[in-house]
Amino acid sequence: MMNSEARSLIYLGNSELPEAIFDALKSNGWQVCAVSDFDQARKIISNSNLHVGLVELSCKQSEAYLRQIENLLRQYVKIEWIALVHTEYESLPSRLRQIIVDCFLDFHTMPLATQYLLANIGHAYGMSRMKWDNLSCPDDIEETEKEMVGSSPEILNLFSKIRKVANVSAPVLITGESGTGKELTAHAIHERSKFKDGPFITVNCGAIPLSLIQSELFGYEKGAFTGAHQRKIGHFEAADGGTIFLDEVGDLPLDQQINLLRFLQEGTIQRVGSNQPVPINTRVIAATHVDLNHAVKSGKLREDLFYRLNVLQLRTPPLRERQGDIELLANYFFKKFSHEKSSNVRGFSQSCLAVMRDYAWEGNVRELVNRIRHAMVMCENRLISAEDLGIDQKSHYFHFLSLKEVRDRAEKEAINNALHRLQKNVTLVARTLGVSRVTLYRLIEKHGINLAD
């Protein structure tokens, strides 16, 4: 493994890198690992934090060898690749030209001009870091939390609350619009809880036929009804020792809500056709995209069940409230689904990113992923455009901020940043922001900032 403290690059070629180039790279703070074998290259890349790669290309390389180069470069899109060719550009075969266009950031012809190459390597390093480093996560974040990419105050606040509620066994209610990551949030809670070694069972309460809800949730005994030829374990029993995630819990019919309430009160279930209680030790996490307070008032949800479920509540923020995260998410999913893209597609145009920032994303992250995957397949240029995403810039789904919204957002961000930097010392924060303590407390209340978090 290469020294992680140095800027590192990999050189793949059958010829040795010229000594003058090697010395120049070394004197400029680069650590070079030269390999000639593809398996060795993959091993080095997998074990090192690399941003730049140099690849030797020549007319003498076979078609099979060139295909291996293409496969390697498309597998490791995090690295910016620079081609070193032994032939003047005008003499390059069309096959090599196509590989350079599709897979490389830049190319150099031999003999190499040292200063020009060093400048391009530095540019490639910067490009790679800007595109990918913000997507890296701390080592203690679970895999499902890594999917919840973001650095906005809203998503960081959610991460903080996930860690807090994971440490207790009380029920959690996750609210938020469709596509905001409620199931990912539930997974993250499960993976940090004492139930992490048990199963994670997901139940869509709105997708079970009314006649089957009780038997699906709580199971049944042999002979309980026609067709019950043997005992069946329900979702709650299957989740024993783990977590049960009740998605769209607001869709549960009133006559079935009493059974859920009984479990939350007593920790036992009864299979259909049995009078024997079965003790179950499972963490209950529920989610909904509807207003359960309104559901209680309209008689669609039992008030006692609402209070049992709503012991701890988390809200997954909609994408339009996470403006700083949109580009991070776009690059993350571009990387994740890079195996699906057309070979020449390298990223997003600046105009496309601007459109993405202004778009309201009614379908939230789910819509963003859908549009990006579509664009990666259909794009015929190097950079994805708004048209490739299928976004009509005249759409009423564009959300243009009013001056008040801009001021409120800047105000809230400034207060959150100051509270974080100054360890929530309100006196110092007020002094830093140039306002009185009374004004600061008023702004904290206005923006719903929780000093206890």
Brief description of this entry?
The chain has 453 residues and is an alpha/beta fold. The chain is 44% helix and 13% strand.
Indicate the structural class: alpha/beta
> How far apart, in Å, are the first and last alpha carbons?
40 Å
* Spatial ordering of strands, largest sheet: 2-1-3-4-5
Categorize the overall geometry: globular
Helices, by number, come to: 20
Q: Which segments are poorly predicted (pLDDT under 50) over 5 or more consecutive residues?
A: 1-5, 134-146
What is the radius of gyration computed over CA atoms, rounded to a whole number of angstroms? 28 Å
Mean pLDDT: 85
Beta-strand proportion: 5-15%
Characterize the biggest β-sheet.
5 strands, parallel
What fraction, in percent, of the residue positions are helical? 40-55%
Topology:
Elements: E1 7-12, H1 19-27, E2 30-35, H2 38-46, E3 52-57, H3 63-75, E4 80-85, H4 94-103, E5 106-109, H5 114-132, H6 143-147, H7 153-166, E6 172-175, H8 182-191, E7 200-204, H9 213-218, H10 235-238, E8 243-247, H11 254-266, E9 268-269, E10 278-279, E11 283-288, H12 292-297, H13 303-309, E12 312-315, H14 326-336, E13 347-348, H15 350-358, H16 364-378, E14 383-384, H17 386-389, H18 403-421, H19 426-433, H20 437-446
Parallel strand pairs: 1-2, 1-3, 3-4, 4-5, 6-11, 6-12, 7-8, 8-11, 13-14
Antiparallel strand pairs: 9-10
